[in-house]
Amino acid sequence: MKRPVLLIKFGEIGLKGGNRRFFERLLIDRLKAALADLPGNVPWIERVRGRFLLDLSSIPPAVAIDRLGRVFGVVELSRALQVDADLDSLAAASREVLGEALADFAGDRPVRFRVTARRADKRFPVNSMELNQLLGAHLLRSAPRLQVDLHHPEITVEVEVREEGAYAYARNYRGPGGLPVGSSGKALLLLSGGIDSPVAGWMSLKRGLELEAVHFQSFPFTSERAREKAVDLARALSPWAGGSLALHLLSFTETQRAIRNACPEELGVTLMRRMMFRIAQALAGQVNAHALVTGDNLGQVASQTLASLSVIGQATDLLVLRPLVGLDKTEIIDFARKIGTFDISARPYPDCCSLLLPRHPATRPTLAGVGRAEARLDAIGLVERALASRETLQLTPTISFS
């Protein structure tokens, strides 16, 4: 027996005790969903001790690695050969995976390597230390470029002997970690066109939240390009969200006009954010979400002082999650580049949050002062009319099978 497989390793869910089976089943569902649109049948994923196994015989390995590398709960992916648990088969498989790894090193320079063997099946006649030595000597004879380096190897050939067979691999790919999407409940992401909120959404997904997103648009003050930017940001998040993300587009024009015409200029940002929270809470009730997620970052702008966050947050009864509160802007930008949203957010098309900004926004608003200003608004009617404008898009990634 010899077949190419992908070893799918998880971390945190292995510590879940009596709930572990729930997390494992959900992770398998997410793995299958990530590959479900590939030509042919839904790939078969096998549960083996401490990990999952995907047969790569009919799936392009690069596609599987790219797709599954975006599934939260996956810690590492290893492209391996599964063979019979005997020394000859293991030696041949080790030689093959080593050859593939050596192809990454141009020229004839020496390459440092080591063998790491683990014998989980104690019926195998050779223990782990002996297997290291036997396979290491065999590989040294097969590839003169190799030099043994146990502490700083450039290639590590890993071998596992388990009850269901043996595996050899030398290429590992990091997964995002975290928990499977949907294992922690459902929340609504307030998605602007900026850098921060998509990163906040990604971090929430990593902790197992299922997400839907809401974007407030203000035609004619904002352009069609601003709308496209929000759609593209949601689409960029969709592979991390399990392959699909609902985006709700709501009109905020009437609300902004009402605030500008009836309320003190310095409270404009605070009042807009409070109205967004009210509208988002009503929408969350309709889509069965139990928390709001925002890209707020403490101290970054006037609406994110401690006083402002407190007053704005009291506009909703829902839990408000702010995953970015401890990060600085450089760290947020680094995350945005990593998840593929930075270039979209950097497009020069302002959203409604960038419009009608006061020259001197209040940084220490009080609930009493904000309440007096809001008394001039038809808050209930504004919420109802914003919800009535809803357009919902179900966004999926751009598909490639190459």
How would you describe this structure to a colleague?
The chain has 402 residues and is α/β, with parallel strands linked by helices. The chain has 13 helices and 14 strands. The strands form two sheets. It has an eight-stranded mixed sheet. A six-stranded mixed sheet has the order 13-12-9-10-11-14, with helices on both faces. The longest helix is centred in the last third of the chain and has 20 residues, at 268-287. The radius of gyration is 26 Å and the shape is elongated. It starts with a strand and ends in a 7-residue tail after the last strand. 41% of the residues are buried.
What is the architecture of the largest domain at the second tier of CATH?
Answer: 3-Layer(aba) Sandwich
The CATH first-level class of the largest domain comes to: Alpha Beta
Percent helix:
25-40%
Strand order of the largest sheet: 2-3-1-4-8-7-5-6
- What is the CATH third-level topology name of the largest domain? Rossmann fold
Helix-strand topology string = EHEEHEHEHEEEEHEHEHHEHEHHHHE
Strand content: 15-25%
Which value, in Å, is the CA radius of gyration?
26 Å
CATH-assigned homologous superfamily of the largest domain: HUPs
Produce the secondary structure layout:
Layout: E1 2-10, H1 20-35, E2 45-48, E3 51-55, H2 61-68, E4 74-83, H3 87-102, E5 111-119, H4 128-142, E6 146-148, E7 155-162, E8 165-174, E9 186-190, H5 196-206, E10 210-217, H6 224-237, E11 245-251, H7 253-262, H8 268-287, E12 291-293, H9 306-313, E13 319-321, H10 329-339, H11 342-345, H12 367-374, H13 379-388, E14 391-395
Parallel strand pairs: 5-6, 5-7, 9-10, 9-12, 10-11, 12-13
Antiparallel strand pairs: 1-3, 1-4, 2-3, 4-8, 7-8, 11-14
Helix pairs in contact: 3-4, 5-10, 7-8, 8-9, 8-13
